[in-house]
């Protein structure tokens, strides 16, 4: 089954890609590896903001991480033309705006990780980091980047 068919089966529509907010590229390809810059969570064109342990629930943050994952997929599709060229999701890096006493960053980033497995199956399983930070660009509650192996075949 193609990845487009899988997305359709899951009822997933990819968002429009977001341009870089500063002096960097949203996607950089080097050989068979694509580096996707940190993607922010958008809902209806607006960044989901807040801080875990203060004003954002775990469930809302997991949905925000999933939104970051959807933006990663949108950036990959824009770069590759087809998500069928993804050979492996190698690594995700998750950054969670959180209070010092919040310790469930790993559960937040599951929102993006679970999406990759839903869409790609076993090639969506990946290495990962989930890090708590005091703040993120434009007040986002979560940001996720990715390293992806691709094949032109």
From TrEMBL:
SUPFAM superfamilies: YjgF-like. Residues 5-141 form the Endoribonuclease L-PSP/chorismate mutase-like domain. Coiled coil: none annotated. It comes from the Bacteria. This is RidA family protein. It comes from Aurantiacibacter aquimixticola.
């Amino acid at each position: 089954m193609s990845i487009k068919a899988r997305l359709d089966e899951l009822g997933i529509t990819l968002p429009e890609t977001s341009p870089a907010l500063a002096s960097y590229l949203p996607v950089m390809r080097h050989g068979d590896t694509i580096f996707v810059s940190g993607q922010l969570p958008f809902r209806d064109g607006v960044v989901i903001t807040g801080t875990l342990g203060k004003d954002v629930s775990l469930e809302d943050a997991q949905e925000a991480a999933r939104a970051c994952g959807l933006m990663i997929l949108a950036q990959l599709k824009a770069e590759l033309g087809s998500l069928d060229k993804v050979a492996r999701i190698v690594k995700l890096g998750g950054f969670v705006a959180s209070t010092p006493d919040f310790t469930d960053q790993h559960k937040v980033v599951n929102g993006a990780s679970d999406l990759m497995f839903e869409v790609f199956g076993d090639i969506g399983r990946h290495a990962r980091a989930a890090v708590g930070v005091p703040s993120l660009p434009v007040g986002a509650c979560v940001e996720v980047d990715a390293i992806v192996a691709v094949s032109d075949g």
